[in-house]
Amino acid sequence: MLDAFQPEFMRNALLAALLTSVVCGIIGTLVVVNRIVFISGGIAHAAYGGIGLAFFLRIPPLAGAAGFALVTAMIMSAVTLKNKQRADTVVGVMWAFGMALGIILVDLSSGYNVDLMSYLFGSILAVPRSDILMMALVDIGVLIIVGALYNSFLALSFDEEFAMAMGIRVDVLYYVLLGMIALSVIMLIRIVGLILVIALLTIPPFIAEKFCRSLKAMMVVSVFLNCLFSLVGLWFSYTLNLTSGATIIMVAAVFFFASVVYEWAREYFSGA
Amino acid sequence: MPVSVIELDNVSFFYNSHPILRDVSLKVEERDFLAIIGPNGSGKTTLLKIVLGVLSPRQGSVKVLGKTPSEAAGLLGYVPQDTALNKGFPISVQDVTLMGRLGRAGRERRYTSEDRALARQVLEKVGMWEYRDRPIGKLSGGQRQRVLIARALCAEPKILLMDEPTASVDTQFQTHLYDLLKELNATITIVVVSHDMNVLSGYINSVACLNQTLFYHDEGEITDEMLHSAYHCPVDLIAHGGVPHRVLRKHDHEDR
Q1: Which CATH number do you get for residue A26?
Q2: Rounded Cα distance, B217 and B204, in Å
Q3: Which of A95, A165, A231, B30 has the fewest C-beta atoms lying within 10 Å of its C-beta?
């Protein structure tokens, strides 16, 4: 099976999969325990506006997407911090607005034959070396930030009000968290595309949560599961000639349902 | 002259346009044991969160230990209501307790061995040390409440703020808790919020009744008038012995 990873593009894909798994497991865990899956989806989809803008302005698409996603994330942080109850509506609007803006800007940038599908569903087999460098940098950045602020993030996630009472700047942390989500999502667009980003962010932590007794353990297990899903998915996609992003998600989904059934069975038999 | 550790001056708070607190003024003196009582929805929790700096008042000023609430953060211990807690969260009893040290842990928020020793001490005090590795979700409501109390004590607070601290603990621990609070009260100020007046008798030395507006009495004495304003129904008082011992008779009708 190692033959599959012989070609240059496959080795790049492999590296990209492993690098994104690190960020994805760490940030995904924070997304799941803070219950901000919807916001993350909003950032991912709104990022499409940035891709459109990049084509319009003739700058690198991922740079445009990253800038746009960061701005979106900051607006969403501000709205959520100001009014939690109304935030989901605003996120939903920005989600749709970003995508619509992206499509219109791509329309206006005539002369470009844009492969929309590769941004919507990923194109891990076409990851260039420059992207791998960017992924490595994001990895290092996220590891440093989460490592340095781990106890604060733990307090924010577990009991936000207590964290505030302890003098932790919850608002600043929230901006940092959403900013990191924005950057992770941009990395994942390369791997699975912006439509499937949410699955890769949430499925591993969801499974890990069942077995883990600490946030740290949950992050480590999620990183491991992410690697597993990406590698197995990549291998299937290569040998069966299937779309890589969708195949990776399908592998994750199979594990997801298996974990749900396992949990259900365990409760059923221990209860009986 | 006694020092005021909490000073609220004409504080008002609205949720959207719905008033929660109106013109609340309150001074809590050092080493006071204050009970704030009032029916559900009277703004008790909101008042605590304003003192903690979690919420900012629409109007009025708040001083805690002579500072703004956010400057005083870390000097306060807080026991929230158990119901507000994320119970599925993967965290152990010990790690929850250590969170109480965050206000003191300095900028990098790392725990030292002294922090861990203190966490052990407070967990032993509430009888939860043997459960230190248990996930918080696998505890009973009463056990969880004890851990939250331990977390607040772990902050070595100058002021301890508790929101319905006895809501889910058994009577035996309740008595133990109040004795513990009495002991702590020798050095720190305690504010307890509760809708259940009976549990508070015998320990407190002042009472405030809250129902959007505040009625305060600094001798632990509750007048019919105060309770009537807060509860809209008569509550009888039986006082025997000297101040501060007060026994409150349970009133027949439920508050609406």
Answers
A1: 1.10.3470.10
A2: 12
A3: B30
Quote the minimal CA–CA distance from B53 to chain A in Å: 6
Domain hosting residue B200, numbered range: 1-75+157-256
State phi, psi for B76 to the nearest 5 degrees.
Answer: -110, 145
Q: Position of tokens 């000639």? A: A241
Residue numbers in B near A156 (CB within 8 A) = none
Whether A151 and B76 lie within 8 Å, measured CB to CB: no
Burial state string for A126-153 with b = 16 or more CB within 10 A and e = fewer than 16: ebeeebbebbeebbeebeebbeebebbb
Cβ separation A158–B89 shorter than 8 A: yes
To the nearest whole Å, the CA of A226 is away from the closest chain B CA by: 19
Amino acid letter at B163? D
Same domain, B161 and B245: yes
How many angstroms separate the first and last alpha carbons of chain B? 41
Residues of chain B contacting A167 with CB distance shorter than 8 Å: 70, 73-74, 102-103
Q: Which amino acid is at B127?
A: G
The helix, strand and coil proportions of chain B, stated in percent and rounded to the nearest 5, come to: 30, 25, 40
Distance separating alpha carbons of residues B38 and B231, to the nearest angstrom: 7
Same domain, B19 and B37: yes
Q: How many domains does chain A have?
A: 1
Write out pLDDT tens, residues B28-40. Answer: 888 988 888 877 7
- Residue among B68, B102, B131, B132 with most chain A CBs within 10 A, to mutate: B102
Rg (CA), chain B: 18
Mean pLDDT of A53-74: 90
Q: Are residues B65 and B167 in the same domain?
A: yes
ipTM of the complex: 0.84
> Which residue matches tokens 């912006």?
A194
pLDDT in tens, A32-45: 999 999 999 999 99
Cis amide prior to A60 (ω within 30 degrees):
no
